[in-house]
Amino acid sequence: MLKVFYLLIAWLAVLLGTVGIFLPLLPTTPFILLAAILFSKSSPRFAAWLEQHRTFGPLLNDWQQHGVVSLKAKCSATLMVAISAGLMLWMEVPWLARIAAGTCLLAVMVFLWTRPSVKNSSR
């Protein structure tokens, strides 16, 4: 049952990642990375398909083999985090929720921006 749940969420992530190719405010990379993780837990066949995909395969291989997140993906994620933070400040969100969400968003940004943007050829 858990494998079916992972499979459904993975396909939803692929769908959102695909839409993100065409919508500049929807990031592709996090959704495809999520799909890869969930496919690896639910379907080796779909995991292999995603790793060999002509659009998503290079992104996954860069991450899995080199720990690289492209500059475009970092900028897109940063824009989304800024929009999310701005919406939280504008809306009637309790202060504790703002602090918790802001801490999580900051942690994500620190993690993301400390990853390399290009492959290191000396590895």
How many helices? The count is 6
Instruction: Return residue spans where pLDDT drops below 50 for at least 5 consecutive residues.
Output: none
Q: State Rg.
A: 16 Å
Mean of residue pLDDT?
87
**What would the principal axes of the Cα set say about the shape?**
globular
What portion of the residues fall into strands of 2 or more residues? under 5%
What does the largest sheet look like? none
Would you report the number of β strands? 0
In sequence order, what are the helices and strands, one letter per element? HHHHHH
Return the structural class: mainly alpha
Number of domains: 2
Q: Helix content range of the residues, please? A: over 70%
Pfam families: DUF454
Keywords: Cell inner membrane, Cell membrane, Membrane, Transmembrane, Transmembrane helix
Subcellular location: Cell inner membrane
Organism: Agarivorans albus MKT 106
Lay out the secondary structure:
Elements: H1 2-22, H2 29-42, H3 44-52, H4 56-66, H5 71-90, H6 95-113
Helix pairs in contact: 1-2, 2-3, 2-4, 5-6
Description:
The protein is 76% helix and 0% strand. The chain is built from 6 helices and no strands. The protein starts with a helix and ends in a 10-residue tail after the last helix.
Primary descriptors:
123 residues, mainly alpha, 2 domains, 6 helices, 76% helix, globular, DUF454, Inner membrane protein, transmembrane, cell inner membrane, membrane
Describe, in short, the structure shown:
The protein has 123 residues and is mainly alpha-helical. 76% of the residues lie in helices and 0% in strands. It has 6 helices and no strands.
